[in-house]
Amino acid sequence: MTRIAPVPYGEEADGSDESEFVALTAEQVQVLRAKHPSISPWSVVAGQVGAGCLVTVVAWLLTDKPHIAWSVGYGALAVVLPAALFARGLTGPLSSANASSAALGFFVWEAVKVALTVVMLVAAPKVISELSWPAMLAGLVVAMKVYWVALAVRKKPVAPSKS
Predict the structure, then answer these.
(1) Which of 21, 26, 99, 117 has the highest CB neighbour number within 10 Å of its CB?
(2) Prediction pTM value
């Protein structure tokens, strides 16, 4: 198996400063993917659902007030629903047609995600009659922090075999 020698940014292997695009071979791509495994957006959404449910139940058990639990749950939902829509958009058939459509799709779905989150937060007082803003924000923050947890617990890179 061929090892890929790292080349500092802006320098070529021969030491010149001219940057020239060099396509990777299939074997080099496999090595790169093994070193840096990706995270499924659906596993992040599932983690957000689990964290949202957990924090909602904990809030209900600690306060014994249903409106607090509903507020926490709604805060988590304001992250989970847009994230699920975003994941659906990124894993759709048009998202991988080519690099341009993938980049455009990412920005479009990110804008949709942010807009839906804002709409849900604005609608919160109408959806939950006794809304507790601090409780809702707690649910929102816990669900958002799942992104960081997913990065921390993702599969560790595989050490390249010495060949």
Answers:
(1) 117
(2) 0.72
